[in-house]
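User: Please predict structures.

Assistant: First:
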Amino acid sequence: MPITPEHFADRLDRIRARLVEQGKLVVQLTEQTFNTIYERDAAAAAELMTRDDEIDQADIEIERDAVDLLTLAIRDSCPIDPAQIRSLLTAVKVNNELERIADASTDIARRVIALGERTSPFPKTTRVMTNSIVGVLRDTVRAFRDTNAEKAKAVLACEGNTLSFHELITRDAEVRVADGRMGVDTAFDLHAIINQAVLMGDHCTNIAEQVIYEATGTIVRHTTAGWVEQNLPNLKERDS
């Protein structure tokens, strides 16, 4: 049976709903992984690493459903609204970004396991940073769920805070190594963990850019002056 615009819209809604659930799962995984840092719970970290397979499988299924939907629409010459195309393209890109955030959680879990018996406390700012990342990720998923450009812009505005936390923690760790309160190996693991947290923040900003694109049709890019929105060129004007 040829696909109709109504069928296309229904399947697109289901893909997006599945992706929102994927986002919630990634938020949960990230938060629980961060908790293992402060509890020094290597067993819990190892268990959380196994959940990455679940996210990877969902990533594959969502990608496959999106490609299949677009293939059917092309095959049957189903009329698709430009907003629906943006929505589907956004879903595919967001799906990939969420999978990469889950990968970062897995890398952090490996670092927790590597810490072993080392119990030197991390700077208190580390917990503030990781709590902030969880909050940003949660807001990112909500922005996608609601196709809300303003919520997405709020996510972009958090980038500076994440980088500031990274610098503060790095400097604090250097002082602790210098005065003997933290071993070099522990400082190395801490640095790797906060690097992955920054990477998570980068993926959140990528998702936020896509949400703004979907909601408004504008491209958002980061420049030395900050975040800048650029209108897409009008095809008719470009071809004239």
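Second:
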Amino acid sequence: MSREKIFIVEGDEDISELLAYTLKRNSFIPKAFGSGEDFLKNITEEKCDLVLLDLMLPGIDGLEICRRLKKNPETSEIPVIMITAKGEESDIITGLELGADDYIVKPFSPKVLVARIKAVLRRKEQIGEISKDNIKIHNIEIVPGRFEVKVDGNSVELTASEFKALHFLASRPGWVFTRYQIVENVHGDNYPVTDRSVDVMMVSLRKKLGTVGENIETVRGIGYRFTDK
């Protein structure tokens, strides 16, 4: 039986109550926060297994909360599902780029919500099995536990998506992955990006890594690999 603790950050009290009710009925343990400020005060003291995050919050908005969660080593691995309104496509893309794991649009089906939660929690467990060890290759050190990347001993600041993509490729040097496989392992199924968006992310990643970024090779007609030579 699932007993994962899920934090709800939702400004609409009715929606918050519906979310809490749905979670309880499916054996989760919900805790609701009406503002981003209250949530941020609690998250470093009381850990949770997943966050349901409304983007349209009073005060600190959902995107800023997501940004802070993913930049803090203590909270960066907590999965985030964004709760959005129709017409917020640009915010959805921004949130996913910041490291959010999925999104659901209001009004939502409780069954779909629970299915999304379970899928994200499964991915978290699967990723955790291969992401604990540090990786050292080609003067790059990747520290998953701290979401940290160093090149020749110097820290490199990456977005959450860039970090996950680099870790995925570098953990399997020499293997070729399609753009779809990269996106799926970074964000899971149904991530709303085009092949071009993946290419743009790779260009940015190479630039930030400097000369070491040349080890991320484009395999024409297929995708990318991190060279093992």
